[in-house]
């Protein structure tokens, strides 16, 4: 059997085949034959290189090895085995299969999300001269551009296609390549390369003859006497590597960069290498800096010890425990104690955080306790850094991982404990691309597969979690006191409408909030201001006719960003200049409407010109260490007021924060979503918890137009149970989670009528599926067009029976597949979101 490269792999009498998971959205694995040269090495979890279709080369993962040939097609041979050991284990593949089944996507999509990019192969087209082509006597006439390429190929054995851009400046490059192929002058093939590259450090060491004989070293110094730069190199080296005390240190040498950073001349180092005084060599090194461990023991307070014992007691009968601790109650110490115990038993631990960059104090605290045993895995890491953590888990270097939702895909083989901190956080939900999973629920399933325990920690539990506590499915431990008996903050409601009527509202700030900010500044204390919208203003508008600039590709108004002086769409990234005049009526009365974090920042600088103000939102934290720099500035006391979106609600712990101001609580509370009350309770409680730590009582000012809303009293009293009871009554009445299972299907197409027709047809097919259900829609989505695609939504409410869900999902998947086989709907996209959050 020939492959893409012309190799022939005859099957031996063993006739081995492998089922390969490929990163394609097709609901199956693919069977390939295993050549005799790799039959003894191949196994589950190995990466292989295979030809898929006529030209594509893909990285796949071996899911199964067997001797049954496929019936529907002749199996192609595996091109190459890429690993010396499996990089994925059987438990991971089982977990991937569950994710694909539960969240209604394909196994290949899960694999694509799971593997770091650095572990996938990339293909790039290469060109070489045809071996039968004679440049001096071509069979066909060549133009100047073709000759330029051929002459370059005569000097170079091969070239990348993209290298031709600099060599031949033509727009239709593919036509030129096609012409040369037709004239049999060149060959085009796919070169496959691994993306991951280890970090290499160039080191030097003293030649062995100068180590074994001390007189040789003296002779060396005599020989280079007067050559100051070379002497300096050797002296610096001997300072760093004391060979007389520990000669074995010379073997590992010294990084060349250390010598050059110390002022040594690079050319002098090279001269010593050339003269064989120094030896140059390369080593693979970690991309992560070594960490110093704090040896101080973890001491629990009486309340923490009681909670720790209660968690362990719950583990006797339950696999999952909710640790319901108010902000500042000291959950971290309990986590540390639990982690230590599991690591001592030889098992692995995963601690999930909604966003690592926002919880830097927690990460640094854990690093001091666990040092280099702890690996960190998050979205701001480079591909190479992610691969190093992945390989560190396989090798056993890291038995404890702290990471975001993608860390669930790491190759754990003996998990003993999974901790999900701030388990209520919406950022645990993956929206795009598939699998659209919720990390908390996926973590519980992964722990189940490993027979591990799970701790869910939060001050404001998700309703689904608390419902499982009420139904005796999860254990429950409550911590209702702040660590060290620190006092809870005082809440104040500030009526926006009342201040507006009395002309006391200035630049979006009520009198009460302005007075409290000034008081905090006078006391040299810090302030957090929360506004859950970035940008300068939600939109700009014409005062004369009401015209509002909208995105060209989406059904949304453009957000005004003053700093960049532009209008921006937060859905597709489209940007436009700020108009001087109205495009509808020509008026120059263009004004901003509403307030984002950028405008709040500006207003604060006008109200408090002496204050040092910083903003933390998506626009100011795009860089790798953007969050860290802002938090370090704030933590060092160089900032008086920090303005931010929901980023500032998560995990900040600064002693000097005495005031938290919520500019517009109504924006959260009255959002059109059945979870808006739950979200408002969670966000306001979380951001309020940043005020007043240790021995200082803080203040929280909630600005609202509806201070009579019952939820504000429940937040102020911290009465989560009463709030839960009231909300659950409404959810039960109107069939909302956790009483039903929600599935949302989004139908997308560039043509409005096609999208609408496809969604109606799908609704009809879903209605015919047996079982108890409620189907809502199809309706045009809240934002009806994004990136030039029209969106329709279908919402399904299913009974909670597992069997009923499995049956419905299978039939739903079949219905979508049937629709896509209709030529009218082949280009329609159907996105299934199970448990939309």
TrEMBL record:
Cofactor detail note: Binds 2 zinc ions per subunit.
Signal sequence, start to end: none
Matches recorded under PROSITE patterns: HELICASE_ATP_BIND_1, HELICASE_CTER
Cofactor(s) in the UniProt record: Zn(2+)
EC assignment: 5.6.2.4
GO terms, molecular function: 3'-5' DNA helicase activity; ATP binding; ATP hydrolysis activity; DNA binding; zinc ion binding
Keywords, in A-Z order: ATP-binding, DNA replication, DNA-binding, Helicase, Hydrolase, Isomerase, Metal-binding, Nucleotide-binding, Primosome, Zinc
GO biological process: DNA recombination; DNA replication initiation; DNA replication, synthesis of primer; double-strand break repair
Organism domain of life: Bacteria
SUPFAM superfamilies linked: P-loop containing nucleoside triphosphate hydrolases
Binding positions (Zn(2+) 2): 551, 554, 569, 572
Family the entry assigns: Belongs to the helicase family. PriA subfamily.
Function statement: Initiates the restart of stalled replication forks, which reloads the replicative helicase on sites other than the origin of replication. Recognizes and binds to abandoned replication forks and remodels them to uncover a helicase loading site. Promotes assembly of the primosome at these replication forks.
Assembly information from the UniProt record: Component of the replication restart primosome.
HAMAP family: PriA
Protein name: Replication restart protein PriA
Gene designation: priA
């Amino acid at each position: 059997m020939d492959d893409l490269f012309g190799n022939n792999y005859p099957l031996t009498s063993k006739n081995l085949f492998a089922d390969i998971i490929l990163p394609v959205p097709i609901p199956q694995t693919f069977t390939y034959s295993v050549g005799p040269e790799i039959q003894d090495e191949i196994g589950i979890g190995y990466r292989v290189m295979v030809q898929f279709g006529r030209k594509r080369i893909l990285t796949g993962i071996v899911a199964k090895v067997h001797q049954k040939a496929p019936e529907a097609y002749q199996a192609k041979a595996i091109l190459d085995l890429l690993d010396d050991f499996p990089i994925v284990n059987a438990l991971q593949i089982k977990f991937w299969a569950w994710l694909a089944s539960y969240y209604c996507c394909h196994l290949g999509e899960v694999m694509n999300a799971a593997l770091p990019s650095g572990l996938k192969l990339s293909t790039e087209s290469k060109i070489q001269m045809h071996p039968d082509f004679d440049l001096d006597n071509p069979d066909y006439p060549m133009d100047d551009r073709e000759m330029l390429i051929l002459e370059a190929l005569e000097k170079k054995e091969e070239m990348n296609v993209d290298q031709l851009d600099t060599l031949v400046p033509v727009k239709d490059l593919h036509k030129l390549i096609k012409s040369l192929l037709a004239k049999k002058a060149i060959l085009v093939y796919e070169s496959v390369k691994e993306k991951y590259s280890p970090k290499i450090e160039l080191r030097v060491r003293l030649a062995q003859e100068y180590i074994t004989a001390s007189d040789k070293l003296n002779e060396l110094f005599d020989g280079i006497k007067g050559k100051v730069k070379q002497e300096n190199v050797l002296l610096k080296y001997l300072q760093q590597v004391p060979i007389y005390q520990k000669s074995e240190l010379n073997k590992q040498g010294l990084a060349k960069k250390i010598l050059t950073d110390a002022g040594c001349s690079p050319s002098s180092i090279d001269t010593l290498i050339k003269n064989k005084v120094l030896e140059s060599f390369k080593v693979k090194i970690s991309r992560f800096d070594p960490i110093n461990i704090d040896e101080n023991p973890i001491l629990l307070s009486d309340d923490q010890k009681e909670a720790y014992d209660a968690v362990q007691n719950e583990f006797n009968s339950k696999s999952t425990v909710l640790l319901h601790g108010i902000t500042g109650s000291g959950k971290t110490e309990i986590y540390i104690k639990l982690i230590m115990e599991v690591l001592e038993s030889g098992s692995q631990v995963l601690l999930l955080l909604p966003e690592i960059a926002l919880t830097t104090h927690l990460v640094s605290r854990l690093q001091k306790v666990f040092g280099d045993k702890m690996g960190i895995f998050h979205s701001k890491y480079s591909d190479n850094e992610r691969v190093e953590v992945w390989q560190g888990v396989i090798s056993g270097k890291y038995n404890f991982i702290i990471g975001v939702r993608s860390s669930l895909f790491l190759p754990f083989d003996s998990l003993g404990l999974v901790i999900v901190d701030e388990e209520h956080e919406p950022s645990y939900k993956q929206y795009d691309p598939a699998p659209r999973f919720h990390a908390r629920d996926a973590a519980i399933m992964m722990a189940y597969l490993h027979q591990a325990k799970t701790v869910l920690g939060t001050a404001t539990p998700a309703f689904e979690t608390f419902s499982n506590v009420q139904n005796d499915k999860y254990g429950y431990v409550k911590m209702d006191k702040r660590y060290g008996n620190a006092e809870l903050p005082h809440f104040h409601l500030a009526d926006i409408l009342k201040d507006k009527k009395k002309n006391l509202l200035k630049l979006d700030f009520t009198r009460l909030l302005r007075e409290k900010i000034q008081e905090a500044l006078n006391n040299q204390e810090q302030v957090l201001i929360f506004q859950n919208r970035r940008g300068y203003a939600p939109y700009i508008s014409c005062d004369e006719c009401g015209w509002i600039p909208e995105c060209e590709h989406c059904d949304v108004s453009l957000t005004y960003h003053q700093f960049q002086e532009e209008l921006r769409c937060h859905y597709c990234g489209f940007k436009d200049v700020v108009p001087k005049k109205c495009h509808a009526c020509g008026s120059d009365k263009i004004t901003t409407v509403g307030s984002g974090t950028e405008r709040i920042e500006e207003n604060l600088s006008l109200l408090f010109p002496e204050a040092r103000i910083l903003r933390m939102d998506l626009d100011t934290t795009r860089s790798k260490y953007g969050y860290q720099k802002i938090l370090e500035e704030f933590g060092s006391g160089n900032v008086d007021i920090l303005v931010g979106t929901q980023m500032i609600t998560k995990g900040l712990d600064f002693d000097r924060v005495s005031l938290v101001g919520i500019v517009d609580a109504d924006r959260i509370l009255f959002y059109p979503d059945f979870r808006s009350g739950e979200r408002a309770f969670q966000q306001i409680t979380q951001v309020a918890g940043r005020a007043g730590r240790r021995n200082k009582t803080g203040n929280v000012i909630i600005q609202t137009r509806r201070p009579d809303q019952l939820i504000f009293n429940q937040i102020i009293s911290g009465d989560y149970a009463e709030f839960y009871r009231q909300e659950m009554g409404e959810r039960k009445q109107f069939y909302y989670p956790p009483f039903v299972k929600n599935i949302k299907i989004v139908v997308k197409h560039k043509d409005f009528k096609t999208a609408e027709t496809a969604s109606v047809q799908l609704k009809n097919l879903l209605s015919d599926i047996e079982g108890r259900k409620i189907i809502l829609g199809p309706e045009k989505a809240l934002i009806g067009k994004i990136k030039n695609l029209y969106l329709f939504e279908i919402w399904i409410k299913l009974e909670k029976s597992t069997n009923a869900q499995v049956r419905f999902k299978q039939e739903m998947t079949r219905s979508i597949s049937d629709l896509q086989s209709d030529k009218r709907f082949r280009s329609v996209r159907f996105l299934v979101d199970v448990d939309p959050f």
